[in-house]
Design goal:
Length: 235
């Protein structure tokens, strides 16, 4: 296990791009830890090492993932985000508790949050839809990344038209949150839900536009027709 992690880290160091390293921090308000490797290259590194671990047990793979998370490097977190969805067929109900622990302990920027939640937790919720109630509990958390996770975990299902009532419930819980990371998260969730449920999402936005933060509102209506956007933005 340690050997694989050492090899991955050596590969990341070998692929540091100076321009990426210089510009990486500007995408974040908080300080982030990074090598400076372009994201497509991180994906290739994740793909390169997957055959070496794919036949391990799920628990062993999760231990490797946690070791990568514990370094704090954003690119190592991206590798976790590439690997975990490949285990979706082996997901069990209690895995969500572990995923929550990872978010609480290791997620400290939007890229780590979205990279992991969009696919890994999105696939988990599609497999175990009854666990969407847990996301509603996350939306009540004091942890900004758990709150964002409650929304962005539904991005992929939302694109497919799933869980609309639950999406509105989570949006209700996050509606007045003052954190722009949370506002952008639930606004994005509403935007994706609007692909197949434009009228319902438009009605929701209009109903709440006087109290919804403008950041969330703009995200939610981004894909709508010009006249609908104008109506939603009207004070």
């Amino acid at each position: 296990m340690n050997k694989i992690i050492q090899q991955i880290r050596k590969e990341l160091v070998k692929n540091i791009d100076e321009a990426t390293k210089k510009s990486f921090q500007r995408f974040f308000k908080e300080d982030v830890k990074y090598y400076g490797v372009k994201t497509p290259l991180v994906g290739k590194i994740a793909t390169k090492f997957w055959p070496e671990i794919k036949n391990l047990s799920k628990d062993e793979i999760f231990k490797i993932c946690e070791e990568l998370y514990s370094s704090g490097y954003t690119e190592e977190a991206f590798i976790v985000a590439f690997w975990v969805p490949k285990l979706a067929g082996k997901f069990e109900l209690n895995d969500l508790s572990l995923f929550k622990q990872w978010i609480e302990k290791y997620i400290n920027n939007w890229a780590k949050c979205d990279g992991f939640c969009n696919h890994s937790i999105g696939l988990f919720i599609e497999k175990y839809p009854e666990k969407i109630e847990e996301l509603k509990n996350w939306a009540k958390s004091e942890n900004r990344w758990l709150k964002r996770a409650a929304a962005v975990s539904l991005i992929i299902p939302a694109k497919k038209g799933k869980f609309l009532a639950d999406i509105f419930e989570i949006a209700d819980q996050l509606l007045l949150d003052k954190d722009d990371m949370v506002q952008k998260g639930y606004g994005w969730m509403l935007k994706e839900a609007g692909r197949l449920h434009q009228k319902e999402v438009f009605d929701y936005v209009v109903r709440n536009k006087n109290i919804m933060p403008r950041t969330a509102l703009r995200y939610a209506i981004e894909l709508m027709l010009k006249d609908l956007k104008a109506e939603a933005m009207k004070k």
